Predict the 3D structure of the following.
Amino acid sequence: MDIFPLLAEGFATSLSPLNIFIVLIGVTVGLFIGAMPGLGSVNGVAIVLPLTFVVPPASAIILLCAIYYGAMYGGAVSSILLGIPGASTAVATTFDGRPMAQKGEAGLALIAAAVASFIGGTISVILFTAFAIPLADLALAFGPAEEFALVLLAFTTFVGLGGDDALKTIVMICLGLVLSTVGLDLISGQPRLIFGDLPGFYSGISFLVLAIGVYGIGEILYTIETSKKSPTVTAAKITFSELGAGLRRMNKLWKTMSMGSFLGFFVGMLPAAGATPAALMAYGIARTTSKKSENFGKGEIEGVAAPETANNAASTGSLLPMLTLGIPGSPTTALLLGGMVMWGLVPGPMLFIEQPDFVWGMISSLYTANVAAVLINLALIPLFVWALRMPFTVLCSVVVVLCIVGGFAPSQKIHDVWLIAAFGILGYILRKADYPLAPLVLALVLGPLMEKSFRQSLVMEQGNVFVFVERPLSATFMVLALIFFLLPLLKYLKKPAKKPVAVK
């Protein structure tokens, strides 16, 4: 496939008046969501996802990607002005962004974050465009055995590379798989796990209901409990002369921004890695290689540029395996994957052949969203400062109403509203107990695909369970899955034993 004609057709889709309007709305909403402490791209996408039913699938994915992009930009605002990251992806930005604000350089720090995000976003979108078709061509060789092995690999990468407690991750994956079996059996049509013949469970548990419950209601409950007092907001305004001076300083940081962009993109492609480790790794490398390493942590502009390029590049990189292989690279892309399934689309290589308008419209919209995000971000800084002073009680009321309406609207069943409330309480408890929520949502999304490909493989091979290790591609995925699954155990065994404490 030739990339440029397809990309040109994609721009014809993404630059239609409706989609440009959607990009502007999505980026602005994403910036506000990303700037709010406690909310991030994953919460924003979960809350807005039900509203996408009113537009075509291409416009819906453009809206969600624009929110995702905007939230990645917005996370730096609260990191710099409040010293509280809007999301975990902006934690590294706080290390030097907040000291810069305290030194009276809040405007320069915000310019650095916006420009670095734009550079990271631009380089990663170009890499995305170049790698999309080769990866999709590779995935065309997949059969049911390869699909099952790939889904298994996705689960084990969360266990081995996710950074959370491995046992808790396995528990959440198992819980998600159990929830994915609720409803009617794929082959026999017999009801399964319908909890006392309740009619609402015959259609299964919607991924949307679970996502809104744990990420919307659960996050609000947790934030209400943990937010004891309003933080101090540092005032910031940006003039044209400050903007020019900031751009000249950023021009000297091209090596740092290039490193952050490439590192972020390739780390973002790894399932379960995502933008947070990419930003922390880029900050660490920038600090090690910088000539001003002693200034890091005290308000060094390089310490803002490195993590911001990396987290924006990683957000784009995580979209690539989701679109080409159907394997999400982050919690937010797991929600996007679920959204595509809801709209009747099957992520994977055939999507590039069967739905080129959708795929290339989405890819081209990333270019548009990147430009829109940097312009809106710089223009609306005073508005963000005002929004950060909004009482959280007002914000949480709006979010709760959106969650209930969003959960009820697609199916129009009160059963789903009760489920949202139950999952909200469950999400709050799991968050307090430090259980990762992304594996739970991922397992509910990928569980039906895993079950279908597993049963198809066994039916085609007349019950031969060795089919998963006899085919080269599936055998490779199975070996990688085994390595990732055993990785936490190997780390534990390599850890030096603690010396016994002498009892006096």
